[in-house]
Design goal:
Layout: H1 8-27, H2 33-67, H3 70-76, H4 81-89, H5 93-97, E1 102-106, E2 112-117, H6 130-144, E3 150-154, E4 161-168, E5 179-186, H7 189-199, E6 203-207, E7 218-221, E8 224-231, E9 235-243, E10 249-258, H8 260-312, H9 325-360, H10 370-379
Antiparallel strand pairs: 1-2, 1-5, 3-4, 4-5, 6-10, 7-8, 8-9, 9-10
Helix pairs in contact: 1-8, 2-7
Amino acid sequence: MHRSDRTINYQVAFSMALVWLVAMLVMLLVPQIRHVEQRQMREHLVRAISLVQADLKRMRAFARDWGEWDDAYDFIAGKGTRAFIDANLVSSTPMDDFDLHLLSFMDLRGNEVWSRSRLPDIQQSHFISYPLFMEYLKKALLERVQEHGIQGMQDSQWGPLLFAFHPITDSQRQHGVRGYLLAARWIDESYLSELSHRVAMPITMRGLHGEVDLTRFQALQRGYLYRMGYSGLDTQWGEIVMLDSTGHPGLLLRLESQRELMLGGGRVLLFTLAGTLLICLVCGLFAFFRLQVMVLQPLGLLIQGVQRYERDGDSATLPLIESSREMRILTRRFREMAARLSLQHKAAQAHSQRMEEAANRDPLTGCFNRRYLDAWLEVLEPSELQLAVLAIDLDHFK
């Protein structure tokens, strides 16, 4: 078995080093906060796109209700035109209720029968593009329209817009399509401000025109791709690419968030860890000092006493230490053990002397025997003395 030569001081210091190492490893977990940030950003992106989808559904429901309304069918067919306009279209209530910028009735060729529009919050220089854009949009929608209508998002010189395009039929669908209803709402500053308020995060939206590398994005939902990143240490952003019906990138929605909460949480965590390490250091030093006073120094004195006992054989040289109950018991046991060893040693010496006497002397006369003589002659130097040997043979000595 391997015998460790490490002192208690070394092992205590090594244990403190392990504590610091574990604490440093815990500090390395601080970057895991980024995973929390990214998860929250993804949730915000999903919420933002869900709100846009909800607005699209509301617009589609509006276009479907009006497109399958018998009065609207009669209006586009030329029946009761003035009465329908006076009762439903002169008022801006429908557009106000759904925040629409455009409500247009058109025939099967896309020619306007009746339209009502409001200008979004855009630059005045873009107003001239409105007629051209509407003609382009109508033509594109007429080529793609389905039985149940279409809805989506479209980029324009005025910026992105939400639209719903629905065929105008009678409620029972007994007659054919007589025209189309187009409802549109531009994603202007007021819409983005409201959307930002609902998501609790600044939002921008713009057209892409095929300028984004989709390989850097991940799938979020069907028809949507997303990515996330950081602008410096204070800002986190997330982007969603909205694909059109052909699978090409159409619009880009971008969210930005200040990392105050996460940075504050990271600072609190770092301060907490630093404070914990400092407390561990102070407690470790205090424990080390107490260990030195209560254990290490008494053990040093005990070792010195054992060394003196080994040299002198006097159990009184062993110290009696009162620094703690355990050390008092330990030193007393050492003194008792040393006293017993001394007694056993003296008894062994006396027994050895008796055995030596019995081996070298005749038990009857007390005289040295031949064994003693042989041993004495072996150690005797021949030049030391001049000796004479007298041998006497006594019969019947007993």
